[in-house]
Specification:
This is Phosphodiester glycosidase family protein. It contains six helices and 20 strands. It is an alpha+beta fold and 355 residues long.
C-alpha cells in the first residue's frame, strides 16, 4: 500500500515539474508587456477654433435673416392694411361715380318739371309732387322712383271684380302714401268692371282681349318696368311678363315720339281732365293729373297738349288713362287735385304707392 502511494506521488511530481519550472522562470525574468495606443478608446478631440468661429458666424447670420424676415412681414402687413383702406376708398369713389350719371339725369328731368312742392323719400320709394300750370288748365305731376317691388301695386275697388271705390278710399284702406286712378271701365248691372285686358298679380282678371280700335294695355312687368302698347295675342303680352296693368285709349308717346291721336279723341271732348302715365330712361314713372272745371270741353287739356307736356318733361313712353271725373291724385293722405265731379269718383282700378 505504501509503495503504491509513493509511486503516485512521484508520478504527480514528474507531471507538474514542467509547469512549476515555467512559473519560477517567469517570476525570475524581468518581462513587460506594452499595448499599442489604439488598443484604448481616445477622448473626442475638441473642435478647432476655426470651426467654432464658423458656427458662431452661421448663428449670427440666421439671427439677422430672422430679423429681416420679421421686418419684411411687418411691412407686408402694413402694406396690406393700407391697400385694403385704399381699395375701400376706391370702391366708395366708384359707387359715387356710378351713381353720378343717374343723379345728373334725375336733376335734368326734375328741373324740366320744376321744384317739388312735396316729397316722400324712403327705402321703398321716392315720390315727388309738382304743380303744373298752363293757359287752359292746372294740374299736378307725380314723379316716382320705385326702389323695391313692394313700392307699387294695382288694386281693385273693394278688392273684387265689379267693385268700385274712390282712389282716396283705396289708398286709406291699403295705407298707401299716394294713388292715381288707373284704367277705363264699363258699367253693367249696377257694377263697374275694368275695361278689356286687366292683369292682377300676374294673372288675367277676365282673360286676354286682343287690342282693338284704339285700346292699349299698360302696366308694370316683373322687374317693375313700365310696359304698354297694343297686343294682338296673349303670347305677345306674356313675353312682357306683366305683373299688373289696365286698359284704355289712346297711346300718346312711344320712344319719345308723339303718336297719332285718333280722330274721335281729338274733339270728343276737346278739353277735359286727364290722367296720364309715362316713364323715363331710368325707369322712373311720371303721372300727370290735369284738372278741368267740367267735361264739356271748356277747360282741361287736349291730348295734343298732353303730348307736348310729356315731351317737355323728357318722358319716353306715355299712355292716356281714364280721365274726366275719374281723374284723381292722392298724395300724403289727401286728394290734391280737383275732380270735375266735385267729389272723387268711385272707379274699379287704382295704382297705389307705398312707403
Amino acid at each position: 500500500m505504501r509503495v503504491t502511494v509513493k509511486r503516485i506521488n512521484r508520478f504527480c511530481l514528474l507531471t507538474c515539474a514542467p509547469f512549476i519550472g515555467l512559473v519560477v522562470w517567469l517570476l525570475a525574468a524581468d518581462l513587460s508587456v506594452t499595448l499599442p495606443d489604439d488598443a484604448f478608446p481616445q477622448p473626442a478631440a475638441a473642435p478647432a477654433a476655426a470651426n467654432v468661429d464658423k458656427l458662431a458666424a452661421g448663428l449670427d447670420q440666421a439671427k439677422q435673416t430672422a430679423l429681416a424676415t420679421a421686418k419684411s412681414l411687418k411691412k407686408s402687413i402694413a402694406l396690406y392694411t393700407a391697400t385694403n383702406k385704399s381699395m375701400g376708398a376706391i370702391v366708395a369713389i366708384a359707387d359715387t361715380q356710378a351713381d353720378r350719371p343717374y343723379k345728373i339725369y334725375d336733376r335734368r328731368i326734375t328741373l324740366k318739371i320744376g321744384a317739388p312742392a312735396k316729397q316722400i323719400d324712403s327705402d321703398n320709394i321716392r315720390a315727388q309732387l309738382f304743380v303744373v300750370r298752363a293757359q287752359h288748365f292746372t294740374g299736378y305731376a307725380l314723379k316716382v322712383k320705385l326702389k323695391s317691388p313692394d313700392a307699387m301695386k294695382m288694386v281693385l275697388g273693394q278688392d273684387k271684380n265689379g267693385g268700385a271705390e274712390t282712389t282716396l278710399a283705396a289708398a286709406r284702406r291699403y295705407g298707401a302714401i299716394a294713388g292715381v286712378n288707373a284704367g277705363g271701365f264699363a258699367d253693367d248691372g249696377g257694377k263697374r268692371y275694368p275695361l278689356s285686358t286687366t292683369v292682377m298679380n300676374g294673372s288675367y282678371l277676365n282673360g286676354f282681349d286682343p287690342s282693338f280700335k284704339d285700346l292699349f294695355f299698360v302696366g308694370m312687368n316683373d322687374k317693375m318696368e313700365l310696359i304698354g302698347g297694343k297686343y294682338a295675342n296673349e303670347d305677345q303680352l306674356d313675353r312682357e311678363n306683366p305683373r299688373f296693368g289696365a286698359s284704355f285709349v289712346p297711346v300718346l308717346l312711344q320712344n319719345g315720339r308723339a303718336q297719332p291721336i285718333p280722330a274721335k279723341w281729338q274733339s270728343s271732348p276737346l278739353r277735359a281732365p286727364r290722367t296720364i302715365i309715362a316713364n323715363y330712361k331710368d325707369n322712373q314713372l311720371l303721372f300727370l293729373v290735369i284738372d278741368g272745371r267740367n267735361e264739356n270741353g271748356s277747360s282741361g287739356a287736349t291730348l295734343a297738349e298732353a303730348q307736348i307736356l310729356l315731351q317737355r318733361f323728357g318722358a319716353i313712353d306715355g299712355y292716356n288713362l281714364d280721365g274726366g271725373g275719374s281723374s284723381t291724385l292722392v298724395f300724403d293722405g289727401r286728394v290734391v287735385n280737383h275732380p270735375s265731379d266735385g267729389t272723387p269718383r268711385p272707379v274699379p282700378t287704382h295704382f297705389l304707392f307705398f312707403e
